[in-house]
Design goal:
390 residues; alpha+beta; eight-stranded mixed sheet; 14 helices
């Protein structure tokens, strides 16, 4: 796993085309480089073979239930917020075979999945996403029961972080104290700067591995002016946040609001589609499926992502514990923002806003909390939300 950043005063300037040298250096070290690219009408995460795969000159417009990809007027490489993918799709895969077994006479011989796992390097990890990875570390590594598949992937991971220089319409990381600037958990951190015709990156080293990578890339010590310019780019993002979440006494607020009428109102809109949990970078719920072939000679057990929005997720003998849409949405929101704190010592939300963007009916977590806090109705919420976010 990436160590906490060292005390480093110096920052370094890399020309924008230095990203090509960075990708190739990581590939030479045996890493599969994953990062942002354009695909399926969105900016998604996929393997990068070269800098040409990066979303140069692309950005996005996001609102509740809306995502639009569009061209920028410049050649920014990281001039977008976040797409539908989170890094958990690589560290905590959506589908994973746990073991397989074959009949041997009257019994079975079972074998676990112990194949070699490709080392991963993530390029373009934002501050909120580093926080999300740290949260999953607590759940899947640091708890009583360690997830060996996650742990193997995580301990080999190389992280090249990118400070946000543009926020999305549904971002609220500032409210959650998780961004927009990275402060830990990276090997190398970059800030993209464009001033007139000048286009470069300011790099900060976080670990010895990050320093070794920097040595393979043409760079020079950044001037004080360049460092200030980069800091200004990040600071400006804080005032551009599309959403705000008031976290004061939030856990206690939700604990005393289990019977709030707002749950009934949101249940009338919620489709129980589970989009919010699928795009969430911290949700970790899974189920298992056992499969056999038609001959009965082979069997396999697969782990797959699941969601607290599905009826079967809370099924026990006699039926589902949470049979209504109301109870399932309430479970998700109160776990994410309240009971998660009791379980793992932090909120389960990092303010990335994906659950708002990718909800088909534009249910907005920040609006739901505001309505519960104010005790207002749906009719008065629109005005309250505008006042809260202005």
């Amino acid at each position: 796993m990436s160590a906490p950043p060292r005390e480093v005063r110096d920052q370094f300037r890399i020309q924008i085309h230095g990203l090509e040298a960075m990708i190739q250096a990581l590939r030479r070290q045996g890493f599969q480089v994953m990062g942002p690219t354009v695909g399926d009408g969105a900016i998604v995460y996929d393997e990068l073979a070269s800098m040409a795969d990066l979303p140069v000159g692309w950005t996005d417009d996001q609102e509740g239930g809306i995502y639009r990809l569009k061209k920028r007027a410049d050649r920014a490489v990281f001039g977008f917020s976040l797409g539908p993918h989170s890094w958990k799709r690589y560290l905590h895969p959506a589908v994973l075979r746990l073991w397989k077994a074959a009949r041997d006479g009257v019994g079975f011989i079972a074998s676990e999945e112990n194949g070699e796992i490709q080392k991963l390097a993530f390029l373009g990890v934002r501050a909120c996403e580093i926080q999300a990875i740290a949260i999953q570390d607590k759940v899947l590594i640091e708890g009583t029961f360690r997830d060996p598949a996650y742990h193997t992937r995580r301990e080999q991971l190389f992280i090249v972080a990118v400070n946000c220089t543009q926020s999305g319409g549904t971002c609220f990381c500032k409210s959650m104290g998780t961004g927009p600037q990275v402060s830990f958990g990276f090997d190398l951190a970059l800030t993209e700067v464009q001033t007139g015709k000048d286009h470069y990156l300011i790099a900060q080293v976080g670990t010895d591995r990050g320093a070794a990578l920097l040595d393979e890339i043409p760079h020079e010590k950044a001037t004080e002016e360049e460092v200030k310019e980069a800091a200004g780019c990040v600071e400006s993002v804080s005032s551009q946040m599309g959403r705000h979440l008031d976290t004061r006494d939030l856990k206690e607020l939700l604990y005393r609001s289990y019977e709030h009428p707002r749950w009934d109102e949101v249940a009338e809109r919620c489709l129980n589609c589970a989009n919010c949990t699928m795009v969430c970078p911290t949700c970790f719920c899974t189920t298992v499926e056992d499969l056999t072939d038609l001959t009965g000679k082979q069997a396999e057990r697969w782990r797959k992502w699941d969601s607290c929005f599905t009826t079967d997720f809370s099924y026990i003998h006699g039926g589902s514990v949470r049979a209504s849409r109301k109870s399932r949405y309430r479970q998700w929101l109160t776990h994410k923002l309240a009971t998660w704190i009791d379980q793992f010592g932090s909120s389960g939300c990092v303010g990335c806003g994906r659950c708002i963007t990718w909800c088909p009916v534009a249910i907005d977590l920040t609006e739901e909390v505001l309505a519960i806090r104010q005790g207002g109705s749906a009719d008065s919420l629109a005005l309250s939300t505008k006042e809260e976010q202005s």
